[in-house]
Every structure is written in C-alpha cells, then in structure tokens.
Amino acid sequence: xxxxxxxxxxxxxxxxxxxxxxxxxxxxxxxxxxxxxxxxxxxxxxxxxxxxxxxxxxxxxxxxxxxxxxxxxxxxxxxxxxxxxxxxxxxxxxxxxxxxxxxxxxxxxxxxxxxxxxxxxxxxxxxxxxxxxxxxxxxxxxxxxxxxxxxxxxxxxxxxxxxxxxxxxxxxxxxxxxxxxxxxxxxxxxxxxxxxxxxxxxxxxxxxxxxxxxxxxxxxxxxxxxxxxxxxxxxxxxxxxxxxxxxx
Length: 248
Ligand SMILES: [Cu+2]
Prior knowledge:
Strand order of the largest sheet: 1-16-15-3-13
Distance between the termini: 30 Å
CATH class of the largest domain: Mainly Beta
Shape: globular
CATH architecture of the largest domain: Sandwich
Bound molecules: copper (II) ion
Structural class: mainly beta
C-alpha cells in the first residue's frame, strides 16, 4: 500500500465571512494567497461548499489526462454522521468500466451492467471484501454491495486490460474531480475534517481542514505520480491471463 503523506491546512475563519462586504471578501482571499476558482458561484450557492483543484506531478515529458480519476472525501474528526447507502451503476462497455472510478458510501449497491455483445466478469481481490460475479452476457447486470469501507480494485477475468476501482467511504462528503481536476463537495457542515485525496497512480494525501459557515474554497493539492509504474494484475485465479481467444 502507499504511504500516506500528511499535511495540515487551516482555512482562515474569515475567508468567506458573510458579514464582510463583497470587495473586502475578495481582498481577503487574495491576501491569503489562494487562487480561488468559482469564487462568485461559491458565494451564491450554499454556505458550506468545499471546493478546490488537484494536479498531478508527472515524470519529465509526461502529461496528465486522467484527473477525473481523483477522489476527494472528508471525514469528520469529531462525531460522524452515518452516511446513507445508495445505488450506483458502473457500465461495462467497449471492454472498459465506465466510469472507471466510482466513489460510493459503504453499504451501497453497485450494479455492473454489461452493454457489450460478449461476456464480462467483475471480480475484486480486495482483502476487506473480495467478490466475483462470474461471467454474464449482454444486457445483464450483476449487483454487489460494498459493505466495508476501502479501495476495491475491480477487474474482469476475461479481459486483462479492464481495470477500475470502487472506493467505498464512510462519509457522505465525497466527490470525484472533473477532467480539469476541480472538485466540489456540497452541504458540508462546519467543523474539522480529515480530507483525503486519492488517485490510482499516486500515493493518497491527507490534510486536516477546518470548514466554517462560509465553506472552504480554492484548496489546492498536488499528487505525485512520478514513481508510478503500471503492473499487469493477475486473473481471478492469481495467474497470468492467457490469450483465450480475446482480441483487442
Ligand atoms: Cu470483460
């Protein structure tokens, strides 16, 4: 597993204080060195929105085209609300999981729907909750309940290049980034949180943040993928995939 890097970020209490006049708010943000994205939208929306942007350090010449794989979640450092479970869908199409990364609350059910004209399988060897749907055909779906929080790498035993992740978190405050790395978590009550930033090619980062009634805006994080190397996973029997007639 990846080691965790820990930093502490305190969001200034008056960062977006609603009592300050508009010009003063802007001045305050600038003086604290935050590049605030979506500032005015944030002011117009709910008071407790947490937003920011994640980037990834790559090896020289490398470029980042998978920022949408970033998952951000906030765990209260105090009493935790019990997050509700939900139903989510991951489509198997074009020999890919779509979306490739899916964050859900622990206890949620994910339906894996096969939209290809041939069989797929979904399995995970995650120690906190391994599962195997067996093979199933076009138009069919298989459901799995992700009870334990954690990261579940998911694969298909037919197609070695199919890789994805379900991330089950024990908090309702989570988001996936857009293609530009920006993320927004809405309706976060004021308080102290441990924030985790996850991506499949980098070690996760954690930071402690304080969210006040005005939310927290313009948070910036950089993950490091410079030491990442692709490793082909094994099939569900723990062996190398055989060609088996599959054509890519
Ligand atoms: Cu498959």
